[in-house]
Amino acid sequence: xxxxxxxxxxxxxxxxxxxxxxxxxxxxxxxxxxxxxxxxxxxxxxxxxxxxxxxxxxxxxxxxxxxxxxxxxxxxxxxxxxxxxxxxxxxxxxxxxxxxxxxxxxxxxxxxxxxxxxxxxxxxxxxxxxxxxxxxxxxxxxxxxxxxxxxxxxxxxxxxxxxxxxxxxxxxxxxxxxxxxxxxxxxxxxxxxxxxxxxxxxxxxxxxxxxxxxxxxxxxxxxxxxxxxxxxxxxxxxxxxxxxxxxxxxxxxxxxxxxxxxxxxxxxxxxxxxxxxxxxx
Amino acid sequence: xxxxxxxxxxxxxxxxxxxxxxxxxxxxxxxxxxxxxxxxxxxxxxxxxxxxxxxxxxxxxxxxxxxxxxxxxxxxxxxxxxxxxxxxxxxxxxxxxxxxxxxxxxxxxxxxxxxxxxxxxxxxxxxxxxxxxxxxxxxxxxxxxxxxxxxxxxxxxxxxxxxxxxxxxxxxxxxxxxxxxxxxxxxxxxxxxxxxxxxxxxxxxxxxxxxxxxxxxxxxxxxxxxxxxxxxxxxxxxxxxxxxxxxxxxxxxxxxxxxxxxxxxxxxxxxxxxxxxxxxxxxxxxxxxx
Lengths: 281, 290
What we know:
Low-confidence stretches of chain A: none
CATH class of the largest domain in chain A: Mainly Alpha
Order of helices and strands of chain B: HHHHHHHHHHH
Number of strands of chain A: 0
Strand content of chain A: under 5%
Mean pLDDT of chain A: 87
CATH superfamily of one domain in chain B: MetI-like
Structural class of chain A: mainly alpha
Radius of gyration of chain B: 28 Å
Number of strands of chain B: 0
Strand content of chain B: under 5%
Number of helices of chain A: 11
Oligomer: heterodimer
Structural class of chain B: mainly alpha
CATH architecture of one domain in chain B: Orthogonal Bundle
Shape of chain A: flat
Radius of gyration of chain A: 29 Å
Number of domains of chain A: 2
Distance between the termini of chain B: 69 Å
């Protein structure tokens, strides 16, 4: 056994050869400590800047507890017809907005695809425009459209459509770029015009993918359509914002539960359709 | 021979007719849904015809009137960039505040997610009640949009950034918690067995067997979430919960046309810049940790 035990000199020699095996180096330790201190300074600094004090947190949590207690039991209140109408409006806004976005994104996607449009400059600038649109949140579009076309679900439909066109067009362009080339070449070789190549060579390949994307966006838009009403763009968001304003917390809880159920139902339905589309081929 | 060809021909025609019928029915259902949706959301041709010119007018008003000759002139010259961004200092501060809000919210949400992810990972064998409770809690906080949380928190914590931070953090906790739990379910279980066999408690096994293996994934998810939260933080001010959103809401409501485009441009640019930076940083951090 004793032969296995190293002498102090041997240990020192090994430590000189592979210092990392003996724990972090002094420099590493210092860096780590500095990073920790820097993080703490940042955390305390920002918390101080946002005036987050234990007192304020405590008061806020107390207030939250009161609100939570008032939320039980959830009740639909007297205007449950309005609530249901708002919910329907939200789903309708999401459906119509996604449909419009997908319809407009289809030609844009073909224009943005490398294997369809060979003009690099045009394609590159189109892609950058898509990126720019993506940076603007749906709520900002909704607020702008409310100013332009007035309060109501129309602004919501337009906001959903505008915000999604760019993202869908990008996804469609990628799907088209990934399509098998041979079908398109075959149609071109048989004398098909570029339009025919797109219609019969590329579209049948990418249509299920595109529909899948559109359905996926419908699901996510149902979520966002429930809050667009907060800025006046129609749907259930308006109802919930109004009830929070007058502090009818039991009705707020009812609407939140209803929202969650609707979103889950739409997810379930759309997921089923999506699986059928993909599995049906 | 002829009879077989004829039989095949009829079968083919039959199949074709069936597909044709399915397409027609599908299109009819789609048209019905569209008509219903258009009717519900007041998407009438008349309102659209009245609205579209106003949309064009609105966006024309938002675009700044820049002039080439005066593009780089001072703040007082109309048509210059400085005139367009005449409150750049205030907006930059608000943007910085928004980024800090997103960072704090991501940190808080990640802490919450980490706490809930251990019981919510199926392979770690937490008691059934803890598993169910943590999974349901994550689901609930993930499904409710952060704006709704913000609306409620503004009542409880007062108007300001704190309400926004907490709202985003809560939603982030739900979204990240599920991803964290899924990442933990994918780790190698042999270190876990080793720690347990050596007499380590459940907490020690979580700390020394699961966390080191899952950490690169967790960090990657958290930093991706930071980018998403930056977008949310830029609009959460619409309901009075701090950040650049409050200013944006004000200029849109008061129709300060050129300021709208200036702020939106700033938001887009900063989101793009942070996306790029954070992608680099994410790769570095994961390299160092892994």
